Every structure is written in structure tokens, then in C-alpha cells.
Amino acid sequence: MIDSIPEGHYAVATSGAKTYAYGCMTRVGITPPPVTITADDKRLKAGKPAPDPFLLAAECLGFDAKKCVVFEDSPSGIKAGVASGATVIAVCTSHERAQIENCGAHFLVENMDKVRCEPVEIDGKLQLKFTIVE
């Protein structure tokens, strides 16, 4: 799915340190995006479950967090995403459904294979349309 999102329209906001986060992304073939917010980012006042990582990522991208979509797999991350005002899609990849289903996410999917992203132009502006498939 990440390949369907235009550059400059996504970020990574993680509770991991920079070295760990970059290593994990590289190992699975993801080039870390220019906006990658890690736990050791000096601009952060607080980490997850505070909304700060998502608010900073949205700001760096030039977007209002309320117009962003957060994909999260942990209870603290889901709570942080919800607190940021973003739409949150919880993904059952590192925690069981029972551990994350009551954390406030707007949607819950088993894995990222269930999500599609389509860039669309509306009133001359690029927007992303996300669809959850069964």
C-alpha cells in the first residue's frame, strides 16, 4: 500500500529510537520517508500515548492532523492517534484484537492487506481515499 501514497503525503511516527526504526524499515525494504519522527526526536515534548509524535509528523508534512489517517498496532499508539484528532485505523499485527479493539480506533483491520489507498483529485487538490476491503 505504501507505494500507492504519493511522496510527501506520508510519515512514520514511532516509539522506537532512530537507529532501531531506520534499521527495521530498511530490513523490510521500506525507504524511511523524509518525515520520520522517532522517540529520540528532540522536538518531542512527550511520546505516545500523547499525540505529540503524530502532531509533529502532520506539521512537518504541512497538514492538519485532523485531515490525516494514522495506522497503528499498539494501544498507546492508537490512543495517541485518536488524541491527535486523526482518523485511526488499528491493525492487528503486534497485538491481539482484544488488546486494541477498545482503544478508540475508528476502524480495525487484521492486516494492511485489508486497506487500499487511491490518490484522487478533488477541487484541484490531491487527496487520499482509503478503502477497507473484506
Explain how this protein is built:
There is one protein chain. The protein has 134 residues and is of the alpha/beta class. It has a single domain (2-132), classed as HAD superfamily/HAD-like (Rossmann fold). Helices cover 25% and strands 24% of the residues. Strands 3-4-5 form a 3-stranded parallel beta sheet, with helices on one face. The chain has a two-stranded parallel ribbon with strand order 1-2. The chain has a two-stranded antiparallel sheet with strand order 6-7. A hairpin with a 2-residue loop joins β6 (115-122) and β7.
List keywords for this structure.
globular; two-stranded parallel sheet; 25% helix; HAD_sf; three-stranded parallel β-sheet; 7 strands
